[in-house]
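User: I've been trying to design a sequence by hand for this structure and keep getting stuck. Would you show me what you'd pick, starting by listing the structure so we're on the same page?

Assistant: Good idea, let's start from the same input. This is the structure you sent:
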């Protein structure tokens, strides 16, 4: 039986312009009020997700930076992992190669990150991967940003640890996500669902593909699995 819900944010609760689905918010509030724990899990920063958690009305169980950071409740300890210096060295190598070609590769919320480095999607990810082949760094394109992250970190690996702190197992969770950075948690959770906009990798990892895209699809999944 599913006992909890973990959800990605961009492309799963929001549309492709990052506008939050009010129906998804209402469905999350309904399940929170019914006593179902809800985890927000994103590539975004802890402070961004905290603000969103407060305003949606969840209890502060969060995974940030694609699993590099997690925390149980608003007052729990912040767990962060990964070699950010190394990710930053990888980013330097990328800009030395790509900026002379006119690509800007703007950093995203650099001052607020503990684990990864995220930047604008204006360079080819395959080329970046080739450039960093000798470094133990993952290159993750979420469809919203490119992330450089230490190997071994993922939303799924963080879910394993966070679930334990919550007195649950990953199998207790319904998971929702739209992109390659959600594959690990879609696979490890009890049931994985994706909205209709999901990437091929996320669809392949899911148990169920919703007929509607973005937050509308996720709201339908909550209505179906937590009626
Ligand atoms: O930060 C990103 O790149 C995407 O964020 P998401 O994990 O909420 O989709
Ligand atoms: Mg997403």
């Amino acid at each position: 039986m599913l006992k909890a819900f973990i959800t990605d944010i961009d492309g799963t609760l929001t549309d492709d312009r990052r506008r939050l689905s009010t129906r998804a918010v209402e469905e999350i509030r309904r399940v929170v009020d019914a006593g179902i724990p809800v985890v927000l899990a994103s590539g975004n920063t802890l402070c961004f997700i905290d603000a969103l958690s407060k305003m949606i009305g969840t209890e502060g169980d969060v995974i940030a930076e694609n699993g590099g950071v997690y925390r149980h409740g608003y007052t729990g300890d912040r767990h962060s992992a990964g070699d950010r210096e190394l990710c930053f060295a990888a980013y330097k190598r990328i800009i030395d190669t790509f900026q002379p070609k006119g690509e800007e590769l703007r950093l995203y919320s650099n001052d607020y990150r503990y684990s990864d480095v995220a930047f604008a999607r204006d360079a080819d990810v395959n080329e970046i991967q080739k450039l960093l082949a000798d470094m133990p760094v993952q290159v993750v394109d979420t469809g919203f940003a490119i992330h450089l992250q230490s190997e071994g970190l993922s939303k799924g690996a963080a879910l394993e640890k966070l679930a334990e702190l919550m007195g649950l197992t990953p199998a207790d969770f319904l998971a929702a996500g739209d992109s390659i950075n959600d594959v690990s948690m879609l696979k490890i959770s009890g049931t994985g669902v994706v909205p209709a906009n999901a990437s091929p990798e996320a669809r392949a990892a899911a148990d169920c593909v919703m007929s509607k895209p973005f937050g509308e699809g996720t709201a339908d999944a909550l209505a179906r699995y937590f009626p």
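That's my pick for every position. To get oriented when you compare it with your attempt: The chain has eight helices and eleven strands. The chain has two domains: 4-80+153-225, 84-150.
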